[in-house]
Amino acid sequence: MSGLLNRRAFFQQGNTEVHRAQRYDQALAVMMLDIDHFKQINDQHGHAAGDRVISTVAGILNEVLRESDIKARIGGEEFAVVLVQTPRNKALHLAERIRDEIQNTPIGSQGMTVNITASFGIAELTDDANGATTLDQLLARADKALYWGKNNGRNRVTGYTAPATATEEDLL
Q: Can you point out the beta strands (E) in 61-128?
């Protein structure tokens, strides 16, 4: 339905790209996005509308992002992207562009229009002492940023910032 990778393929290809970025000292960022109030869309407009929403978001990801970026639907209304050779500031800009496109793309459903928004979390591959060096760590940080955004108003892009006094627990 989405035309994107599934969770398993995402992790296989994503881990390869993380290792490649580390080996060649290249920038890499991970983007997570979650469609805001998706359950309400399904409840109010039906699952066919929800399917159209998923397909529309997947289409926007494919349209805006490069073919080399690894795009996946990793669960329900949640998507993840590995942005190869992309530093944090460019990842934030791309996420904002996608967020705006989603917000401004009405979706027709049974004679009515459904408007949607999405929240985003961004994390960057780093090699410092408190850095994220694995795909799992990057996703955990992007997820933390995503949920901070959801808890602070939704329909926003949030970049992960490591705490000044990070402990090993912060990295898990």
A: 70-75, 78-84, 107-109, 112-114, 118-124
Whether the model pTM is above 0.85: yes
Residue 57 identity (one-letter amino acid): V
Based on the residue annotation, tell me whether 77 is a catalytic residue of this protein. Answer: yes
Closest CA to 34 of 53, 10, 52: 53
Of the residues 17, 67, 77, 78, only one is catalytic, namely 77
3-state secondary structure of 127: coil
The two beta strands, 118-124 and 28-35, are: antiparallel
Question: What are the beta bridge partners of residue 5?
Answer: 72
CA dist 92 and 29 (Å) reads: 9
pLDDT in tens, 119-147: 999 999 987 767 778 999 999 999 999 99
For residue 79, give Cα distances in angstroms to 73, 82, 131, 165: 4, 10, 23, 30
**Residue 78: pLDDT band by 50, 70, 90 thresholds?**
very high
Cα distance between residue 32 and residue 141, in whole Å: 10
